[in-house]
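User: Hey, quick favor. My workstation is busy. Could you predict this chain's structure for me?
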Amino acid sequence: MARIFGRKTVLLAVGALALTLLGGGVAVAKPTPGTDPDAVRVAGKMVEQPPVTQADIDLAKAALRDGVGIQASSAQLFAVVSANGGLIRGSQAVSATSLGLGLYQVVFDVPVNNGAFVGTIGLTGSVGTSPSGLISVVGRTNLAQGVFVQTWNASNQPANRSFHLGVFLP
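Assistant: No problem, here it is.
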């Protein structure tokens, strides 16, 4: 008769079962719903996005293109935003807003909530060298057409920085 399990396999299985029954099993921590374990924290407190205003929602709805089911080409969605939150140029970007020190919102004329976002610190012109810094980009809470951007200086302190944002849609 053929053996299905070897002696080592049986010993490992019995040992794992014994550890589990004695409380030495593996525990997996699950993050609290709605929180991201990788979210930025300052002094132990998670940095939250400011709330979306009704004016932001109205502007996004007004800019929404006909035929929302048809998404734009990923190569065409981008925005170049100044340090004070001004939209300098872009493709399908309808507004950029400064929400506070190093906090920005960029709104496009199509939903981007299922896309991927790429941001980089950079000057708004075509020549020169940008001050160094950091950038983080994520979808805008409660605004499918929006992207939330945070910028910091090289010392990891919130700072207003001009940036370039690209959006890739599925």
